[in-house]
Write a structure and sequence with these properties.
Chain A: Its cofactor is FAD. The structure holds two protein chains of two kinds. In chain A, about 50% of the residues lie in helices and about 15% in strands. Chain A has three domains: about 110 residues, Orthogonal Bundle (Butyryl-Coa Dehydrogenase, subunit A, domain 1); about 80 residues, no CATH class; about 140 residues, Butyryl-CoA Dehydrogenase, subunit A, domain 3, CATH 1.20.140. In chain A, strand 2 and strand 3 form a beta hairpin. Chain A is globular. Chain A contains eleven helices and nine strands. In chain B, about 40% of the residues lie in helices and about 15% in strands. The chains are: A alpha+beta, B alpha+beta. At the A-B interface, helix 7, strand 9, helix 8, helix 9 and helix 11 of A face helix 7, helix 8, helix 9 and helix 11 of B.
Chain lengths: ~375, ~400
């Protein structure tokens, strides 16, 4: 397995970065955080359908692009670098679930970017075997299917979804997002909005039975953890390079503040951490793409390592920019909020270390 | 040249050279002459001009056949630092003379760079080389020289023009360690043993034919050596739990009575860091194999030093009462760093050198900040001053 980027991946990165530079500069991202439409649906359509990022991990015979999760992870890096307000993470997790349960029709729609599916679980759900049940199934006597009643809190990307996947007692269900009640949450991270979702007897289609829920959830969660690590890498890279450029130009005491050794060493250490995060994130993406038996270790390793690196990069970005980074008009806070939320998303580093201990036979 | 072709070459070689019956040295010489030593080197110099990334194919094939190796730890300085410098800056004659016995291990190499007054500021070195007849006479003192007591040759940098600023008046030589003017004295370390030495050079004669690169170009030539040194320390592919972390993890697994809940998370933090460092080294190896610049080498070395110090410190505390005991402070002359066989106390003490040897972590941080991140350089008041006028 290579840990380097291929030429194809670099081309894809270039295409995504050009699009984001054009359509989602930080000024636009900041403005959108205070608008009525926190997700950029038009941007998401271009990204998912036209550039085709929704289809990357889906095999060609199922209507996909026949690329792999490795390319999908490169897209996640760029979206992290731009803190872009698109439901990429939620959609990718749902795609992984659909691949696991082989629901080909919905998979075709999702990979074509026609519909966006999102798994309705709390974003903070950490590593563990049991899928988080959030609804009960009522009245399974109707010919056209079941109905669901229940609630789930802090669902990321639900506001941008067409379809929600709900884990109930006896299976995985798809419900129309419009049929559920989605209450927007004021999220710490303004660029990835949460919603509390409730279902009151909404019609639901069963995607998978009791036995398939566990594997589908595990596949979705692992894909999410791996992509999140690449996103965290992108966040950390933006914070590092932006801070480096700033300290070269900001003068105090008659010299660039970046000439002071205290700052140089802090930034050098951060570069070392980001360099390591790149290797770790690439390894996780490779394991996911190849279906490597080490995937469980790689996913938790990636979360245990890359989450804290992104937070540190964002915190250093604020500190080394000084007062300007405490203002609403500077982009640093968008990255700090995303980085800190990402460190909680899909389980904190401490939870992942505990999971790793079990996986690599280090008993308590 | 691909992996299949290389494998076939090794097998053909092994058909004609049976490692079970052949003399070890004869076998290694024949392997060198067949271009199967370091395959990325040119033909006739032990290589085939093949991609460096395919070296493991060859090494694995020889190992599987039970062939003798060249004891790479004992000749690490030759392999990792002297050889790339000779290859890049040496004349054809110098390459032919030195590279073969270097690779086979017949001739051990050491490095005469650091001095008591020139550590991190290596370019301030004061060992003098004065031109005399058809050669040079060298006087001075070098320090922290591993393997000097075993070495046949040394790579040496010395000052040939004190009237120039410090970086400009340096020339790079190969020094014969059997010259009567070379005196090697062991330096005992905090571990009790003496891996390295101080070396006194008194009227040492070096023929001009043993100069590497032009007169006054020694600093530039030395960069090749130093870049390769940083790659050599902490680089290379190792399996998961292949380093210090494996020792501690196995202690943890086999000794439940030592465990405490607080230490579990501390151990897992170290495990994660070790794995991150390992994957970074692996990625660096891939980059180097494809010929991409490897600034990651600085990241690998920097992180490796910190990690080893943290793990070995953790190990001592985990052991509690046992951590109070040490295995052996006897003065010895090891040729490597036998950290697996030695006690946790040895690992703790020896790891302290990891952030000093081959460039301190502070100097590495400066290099990263300036050359990778492009931050302003340190103020260098001595940069344009003739070396002889520097305060010391």
């Amino acid at each position: 397995m290579t840990l380097l980027y291929s030429e194809v991946e670099e081309e894809l990165r270039g295409a995504v970065r050009r699009l984001l530079t054009d359509r989602a500069p930080w000024t636009a991202v900041l403005k959108r955080t205070e608008s009525d439409e926190p997700y950029d649906h038009a941007l998401w359509r271009t990204l998912a359908a036209e550039i085709g990022t929704a289809a990357l991990p889906v095999p060609e015979k199922l209507g996909g692009a026949g690329a792999s999760w490795r390319e999908a992870a490169v897209v996640a890096e760029e979206l992290g670098r731009a803190v872009a307000p698109v439901p990429y993470l939620g959609a990718a997790m749902a795609t992984a679930a659909l691949l696991a349960i082989a629901d080909d029709d919905l998979l075709r729609q999702v990979s074509a970017g026609e519909r966006t599916a999102v798994l309705a679980t709390p974003l903070s759900t950490g590593p563990g075997a049991a899928p988080p049940v959030s609804a009960r199934v009522d009245g399974d006597t109707r010919v056209d299917g079941d109905t669901l009643t229940g609630a789930v809190t802090s669902v990321a990307d639900a506001l941008a979804a067409d379809v929600l996947f709900v884990i109930a007692g006896d299976g995985l269900y798809a419900v129309e997002a419009a049929a559920a009640t989605r209450t927007p949450v004021l999220s710490l991270d303004l660029t990835r909005r949460l919603a509390d979702v409730s279902f009151e007897g909404v019609p639901a289609r069963r995607l998978a039975g009791r036995d398939a829920v566990g594997p589908a959830w595990a596949a979705a969660w692992r894909a999410g953890a791996v992509l999140l690590a690449s996103e965290q890498l992108g966040i950390a890279e933006w914070c590092l390079s932006t801070t480096v450029e700033y300290v070269k130009t900001r003068h105090q005491f008659g010299r660039p503040v970046g000439s002071f050794q205290a700052l140089k060493h802090r930034l050098a250490e951060l570069w070392v951490a980001v360099t390591q995060a790149r290797a770790v994130a690439r390894y996780a993406a490779g394991c996911l793409a190849d279906g490597d038996p080490d995937l469980a270790v790689a996913a938790s390793l990636a979360q245990a390592h890359c989450g804290p690196v992104a937070v540190r990069a964002a915190e250093e970005c604020v500190q080394l920019h000084g007062g300007i980074a405490m203002t609403w008009e500077h982009p640093a806070h968008l990255y700090l909020k995303r980085a800190k939320s990402d460190a909680i998303a899909l389980g904190t580093a401490e939870r992942h270390r505990a999971t790793l201990a079990g996986l690599v036979d280090i008993p308590s | 040249m691909d992996a299949t072709e290389l494998r076939e070459r090794v097998r053909a070689f092994l058909r004609d050279h049976d490692p079970a019956t052949m003399d070890r040295l004869e076998f290694l010489r024949a392997r060198f002459d067949a271009g199967l030593a370091w395959i990325s080197y040119p033909p006739a110099l032990g290589g085939l001009g093949a991609p460096r990334s395919l070296q493991p194919v060859v090494d694995d094939e020889f190992a599987a056949a039970g062939a003798p190796d060249n004891d790479p730890m004992r000749i690490a300085i030759g392999l990792g630092m002297a050889a790339p410098t000779i290859l890049r800056h040496g004349t054809d004659e110098q390459r032919r003379r030195w590279l073969r016995p270097l690779w086979t291990g017949e001739e051990v190499w050491c490095q005469l760079f650091s001095e008591p007054g020139a550590g991190s500021d290596l370019a301030a070195l004061g060992t003098r080389a004065v031109r005399q007849d058809d050669g040079w006479t060298v006087d001075g003192q070098k320090v922290w020289t591993s393997l000097a007591h075993e070495a046949r040759w040394a790579i040496l940098i010395a000052r040939t023009d004190p009237s120039l600023p410090k970086h400009q008046g340096i020339t790079y030589f190969v020094c014969d360690m059997t010259d009567p003017g070379v005196e090697v004295r062991p330096l005992r370390q905090i571990t009790g043993e003496a891996e390295f030495n101080e070396v006194f050079l008194t009227g040492v004669r070096i023929p001009d034919a043993h100069r590497l690169g032009e007169v006054g170009e020694g600093w530039r030539v030395a960069q090749t050596t130093l870049m390769n040194e940083r790659v050599a320390i902490g680089g290379g592919a190792v399996p998961r739990e292949g380093g210090f972390i494996g020792v501690v993890a196995n202690t943890w697994r086999s000794r439940p009575e030592l465990r405490s809940p607080g230490q579990l998370d501390a151990l897992m933090r170290l495990w994660v860091s070790a794995e991150a460092g390992r994957l970074t080294a692996q990625r660096l190896g891939e980059q180097l194999a494809t010929g991409q610049p490897g600034f990651e080498g600085s990241a690998v070395k920097y992180a490796y030093a910190k990690l080893n110090q943290e793990i070995s410190g953790f190990e001592l505390e985990l052991l509690g009462e046992e951590g109070l005991r040490y295995d052996d402070y006897t003065m010895r002359r090891p040729t490597g760093v036998p950290w697996q066989e030695r006690s946790p106390g040895y690992r703790y003490l020896r790891a302290k050198g990891n952030s000093i040897e081959g460039g301190t972590s502070e100097i590495l941080a400066n290099i990263i900040a300036e050359r990778v991140l492009g931050l302003p350089p340190e103020i260098r008041v001595d940069k344009d001053v003739p070396w002889k006028d520097l305060p010391r």
